[in-house]
Amino acid sequence: MAKGRRSDFIPRATQQQQPGQGNMMAKIQQMQEEMRKTQEALETEFVNVTAAGGAITMVITGHQRVQSIKLDPALVDPNDIAMLEDTLVAAVNEAILASQEYAAKRLETVTGGISIPGLV
Q1: Is residue 23 domain-resident?
Q2: CA distance 31 to 14
Q3: Is residue 15 part of a domain?
Q4: Structural domains in the chain (count)
């Protein structure tokens, strides 16, 4: 035996996999594929949000892209544009939050509730 070498050393490439390790990798790859498909689907899934007491209705995708905004004409006061602007900002933020929550629930069905940072 060469000096300084352990007799029980086995290079990583020749070490045996632990039982179930290959199965775990297959499950992880399957979960990744399901997550990819779910994230793609979120692009075309829509969340309807009503804000400002029903005066604003918005449609937003699972990717937080606003598709439409409908305003009750009574909400539009040419003498109070600042109020309309503030109301729209609040409504858009509410819609984004609703979309993020929807996406998180959809992805939770794939991950089984495991929190994976940076997914949504």
Answers
A1: no
A2: 28
A3: no
A4: 1
Give tens-digit pLDDT for 9-28: 666 655 555 556 668 888 88
Other C-beta atoms closer than 10 Å to the C-beta of 9 total 6
For 5, 6, 14, 15, 47, the CA distances from 9, given in Å and listed in that order, are: 8, 5, 10, 10, 57
**Identity of the amino acid at 83:** M
Task: Read off the pTM.
Answer: 0.67
CB 70 within 8 A of CB 57: yes
Output phi, psi for 112, to 5 deg: 70, 25
| The token pair that represents 67 in the structure block | 């598709």
Question: Residue 49: in which H helix or E strand, if any?
Answer: strand 46-51
